Structure formats: structure tokens, C-alpha cells
Amino acid sequence: MITRRDFLAGAGAGRLAAAASSSPAPQICLFSKHLPELDYPELGRTLKQLGFAAVDLTVRPGGHVRPERVAQDLPRAAAALREQGIAIPMISTGLTSAQDPAARPTLATAARLDITYYKLGYYRYGKLADMQAQLDKTLSEVEGLAALSREAGIQAGFHNHSGTYVGAPMWDAWEILRHQDPQWIGFYFDPCHATIEGGLAGWNLGFHRLAGRLKMVAVKDFFWEKAKGKWTARQCPLGEGMVAWKTFFQQLAALRFTGPISLHLEYEIPGASEAARRENNLQAIARDFAALKAMMRV
After folding, report:
1. Whole-number average pLDDT of the chain
2. Is 108 a domain residue?
3. Would you call 29 helix, strand, or coil by DSSP?
4. What CATH number has the domain bearing residue 120?
């Protein structure tokens, strides 16, 4: 029998999966933001050709599904994707308030289509002297969305984005989420953004604080680069950056996490022409997908 201590000491995700084969594995999704030019049927065919079985579908302004047309277009998208064997375990929205006219139709339509999770939009800090007031306002907005999630029957995920966003240090995310019903809203953890904000141990402390409410995971990589005298977090291909993937995936597997893992490619992918850039983009997706699967096995 493989114990939690054995696993964290170095047992791989594959060994744990073999020991607990009754537990479903996480679904690896591609964030559809990275294939913006494809319509629903072509998106489904492309994902299938790349080897994906699931997608994190953008349902937000500028996304694959526009919020004002969610009741009409999300069912069309789901039908076209599922025809190619592509599941939709999660959608990424821009929702930050239950008062948004798109909130109720988005959540109701997604739930009716058996989509289990959705990503919230972002809340930003303005004047840092007013942080507590802004945090209180965010808590109120999140409470409204959590109630709407419960009503619709779909689970929300609060994402930790680096920078002046609520949730960047993760302790403020805990102050928000600890007051919510964990059945309907939880944490959408991003190791890359967490490492940007807390590279030594902060990412890990924050993860452990919120791990009991983990719903979804976002995967991408970065490194610090100094250009023109300024340090910048530069996104890069998966496995070429500073995120402690081995430690993270060991801990994720030890939690028996079964939610969606969304693969993101936020780094620049050039091309001599638009056609060349699109081909290079597909190659980058395939490369990062292979890297992610390898990371989850070690």
C-alpha cells in the first residue's frame, strides 16, 4: 500500500494512480483562447487531432461564445465539440457579479449542458490604501455569484492571477472563499502565477492553505528576465521555466485531485506569415501537451 508519506517522498503520479485506479484521473483541457480563429466544428476536429479529450471553452467577451449569445451558441458549441468526442468540463467566463446580465443565462445554460465548472472573471485592487474596502466589495460580489452557482447547479473557481489582482497573494482569496459553501465555489489554482508572486515558498504555502477547496488547475510556465533594466516575468514553453512542477504534481496527485487541468500557452509564438504562425501554434500546443502528460507521470 502506498501511503501519502511514501508518495510525497518521491512516488510518482503514475504509481499512485495504479494504487487508486478507482479514482478518476484529472481531465487535461486546452484553453480555447489559443485557437481563437476556429469555429466550433473545426475546434473540435483540431483538438481531436492534437489528442485532447476536453476543452476549457472561453465564454466571455471576445471568446468562442459571446456572453450575449450564450443561450443560443453554447449549446451549438457543445454539440459540435462532443460530436468529435471533446468534453467541456469547464468554461472560462468574465463574470464578476451576479448582476451581470450574462450571469444567469451563462450559468443556467452551462449547467443544463452538464458543464461542471466555470472560472470567474477578475477583481483588481485600485488604491492600495483602500484594500480592505475593495476586498469587502469582492467578497460581496463573490457571495452573489456563489448563490447563483448553487441555484444553477454549477461550481465556480476563483483564479489567482499575479499582479494587482485580488487573489494574487492567495491569503486574500482564502479570506473570500472561507465564507462560501465549498460545494459551489472554490479555488482555481495557477502554479505559474503563484510562483511569480511567491517563488521560494509562497506558492506552496498558498496552495496548501486553499487545497481543501481546489476545483480546477491552470498550467503554464515562466522565468524572470531582465530587459532594459527592468525585471519581467516572461512566459515560456512548459517545463522551461521556474515552476516546481515535480513538487506540485506530486502534491496534486496526493490530494487525489480529479478536476480539470487547463493548459495555457501565454508566450509569444511567431511566424513569417499568419499560416506559419498558426502551424507553429499547433506545434507548440502539441509540445506543451506532451510535456504536461510527462510531468503528470513522474
Report:
1. 92
2. yes
3. strand
4. 3.20.20.150
